[in-house]
Amino acid sequence: MFDGYQMYHNYLRPHMGLDGKTSAEKCGIQINGDNKWITLIQNAKKKIHVKIVF
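and the corresponding structure tokens:
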């Protein structure tokens, strides 16, 4: 349940301290679609390969 709240807090909930933007929007992450919950769940199911270079 905490993971769901964390997703809501960071990706869906606007914050007064961020000029009405979500934490994700402030970082440049846009969540599009009519139902942003569904979009987040669908994106979480995708395999994303990230190469980290030090």
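(Above: one complete record from the training split.) The two ends are 34 Å apart (CA to CA).
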